[in-house]
Amino acid sequence: MTIDVQPVGQNGTDIGFAGLNTAFHALTGVNMKIYTITDWLGLVPIFICMIFGVVGFVQLVKRKNLLKVDSDIIILGIYYIIVIMAYLIFEMIPINYRPIPIEGVMEASYPSSTTLLVLSVMPTLVEQSGRRINDKLIKKLITLFSGLFSLFMVIGRTISGVHWLTDIVGSVLLSIGLFYLYKGFVLKFSKER
Fold first, then answer.
1. How crowded is residue 59: how many other Cβ atoms within 10 Å of its Cβ?
2. In Å, what is the CA distance from 40 to each residue of 81, 105, 153?
3. pLDDT surpasses 80 at 26
4. Residue 1 pLDDT > 80, yes or no?
5. What's the chain look like in SS3?
């Protein structure tokens, strides 16, 4: 919001790191096919969240007490709520707008919500599978899938041209910070039990 801010966005909106962002956008252009593919694949982490929601709900029903639900599942639920809140805050307080309108509408662009969602959820899939699955091959396959999927999504969102480069970088940094916050709480409460 303070470095190389220029009115180069849609309708003359201010964009930080304007030289870098506009040069990268000129390099990649806009690819709506990649945007559409990554948009639909953004449902994968939502499905993963729902799976863990069902795990927590089943534990709650069987154990008949919220305090008897695995602490890492409770922390995971709280973490997912924090990720959603981070997204909503940036939707309500736009830092900048996308380089192009989506279906004729100026949309908030920072951070990339799809990138934030993918990079906040996929590491939890790896972490939770490490706790809940005993088969080493399945764990490795989940880790490989999560890594390749995350890489594809970040690269896809970056080269689709619907975000500024700094939107993607901001999402990566924010999701890393949020995941380590989650991981820290899980480790703290796992040691106490």
1. 17
2. 21, 19, 11
3. yes
4. no
5. CCCCCECCCHHHCCECCHHHHHHHHHHHCCCHHHHHHHHHHCHHHHHHHHHHHHHHHHHHHHHCCHHHCCHHHHHHHHHHHHHHHHHHHHHHCCCCECCCCECCECCECCCCHHHHHHHHHHHHHHHHHHHHCCCHHHHHHHHHHHHHHHHHHHHHHHHHCCCCHHHHHHHHHHHHHHHHHHHHHHHHHHHHC
